[in-house]
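Q: Hi! First time asking for a complex rather than a single chain. Here are the components, and I think there are two in total. Is that enough to go on?
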Amino acid sequence: MKVQRPGAIAATCAISRKELRVLFLSPLAWVFLASFLFLSGVFFYLGIVMSGEASLRSMLANLAVTLLFCLPMVTMRTLALERRSGTLELLLTAPVPLESLIVGKWLAVMALCLVLLALTAPFPVVLAQFGDPDPGVLLTSYLGLLACCGAFSAAGLFASSLTQDQMVAGVGAVLLLLPSWLASVARDLVPVAARQPLDHLSFVEHLRSFARGVIDTGDVAWFGGVTFLFLFLTWRSLESRRWR
Amino acid sequence: MIETHDLTKRFGPVLAVDTLSVEIGASGLVGFLGPNGAGKTTTMRMLTGFLPMTSGTAVISGFDVFEAPLEVKARVGYLPEAPPLYPELTVGEFLRFVAEIRGVEPGRRSHRIGEVMEQVGLSGWEGRLLSSLSKGFRQRVGLAQAIIHDPPLLILDEPTSGLDPAQLVPIRRLIRELASERLVLLSTHVLSEVESLCDRILLIDRGRLLADGSVAELAEGVGAGPWVELVLDAPAEDLSVRIAELEGVETVEQLEPGRYRIRGGWGVEPALGALAGAHGWRIRSLVRRRPSLQEVFIALVGAES
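A: Yes, that's all I need. Here is the structure of the assembled complex.
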């Protein structure tokens, strides 16, 4: 009998493909897409048609906050449901490294996010009809949103790794991200001296450079760091089962 | 193939598996038997690397489960108590996914999927949604995913639970077949199953290994070796004393008037026949019996509690 093991990349792809398939076969992904598109449409109308400014700048933060509340709908099931339905036993007894499992699931959520961003294509098209938007700024705005997706889905994955209850995982993901959003709300209420630490925490502040058409290494590193931190915590959370 | 040493699992104050030490060879069918809650599933989960042990070691094919989990997982096929299925996928999609994460080479996957589907009796079911399958068929898919990578060790947690009698026969035959070239460790609380299937039985109760051996060996262990049951027609008097005088008879016990349990060597039956003939007793039946596993089981588990 020959002993076989999948390569790390092959395993990651297999997990990702399965995850995407299951995601799109469940109603959740569609509810997620619909609710995000509806809310972003409202923001688009209020922010751009009403203000008359041909850029996504004003609505970028709003879209990111919408993601914060919508993305947990998708991430909440990733690990919590596997645990509840017993399929986690299948994944954790297969010769798949934990990293492949986690990155595979994260990539699947990111692929869904790409679909989502592609579906917002009418916004820039409408902008181009009525104004003269800067393509560079549009591109960096989308990159900023993608960076948000990365960080938020990593946090969602972590929340989902802690429980077998999907609702808890969903609410947990929002709670994990809430401080980062509230920091941007609170900054206007506190003395100037206290603003700086809040700005560091706030993803809205880190989105500003993207909204201006600038790719700021510091901000890119911030999103990358948050993503990595939460993926690492997910890994720790699953790995710690070995020690309990 | 499997070697455990003082394997222990504690869930808080509950001792689920208590210093379990066993050694199991490279092939055959080993039955893991015990009442519900005895620690069978927990032990299997530790062997597959799903649950960490509290203390002790488990080595599979020379690889420590804790130190080299991926090496161990690559060598084990595992069917958990509830088959782990994704209801959204079809049988074919699911088996393809398992083949992928089990590292079956891309070129061989389709062939392998066809092969195992035939083995477990799922041919033609490739396109069925897993959510639409009955318990028996879910169990078959579970078995198919456990053997798709042709593992040298197969761990099956209650593989026949929920199957109807018609499904039971072919699945048992398949398990028997699989055990001819690999080690199959299966758990069950169905006594007749281990009795008819297994070469070796590990009896556990409350996390402790109570007995280890074939049914006959277990029976010897509780002092319940084979005996001869003699039923005579109608004599009301107790003939125990006269039977006991026969050569080769060790003990005689009158179970009820006319019915005796006699322990002794193989020469006992003809001697009994001769004795009955000489006295004109009419023999209704004279059978050599072995204790059923159930009796052994009750003797062992009962003695503990």
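A: The radius of gyration of chain B is 24 Å. Let me know if you'd like any chain examined more closely.
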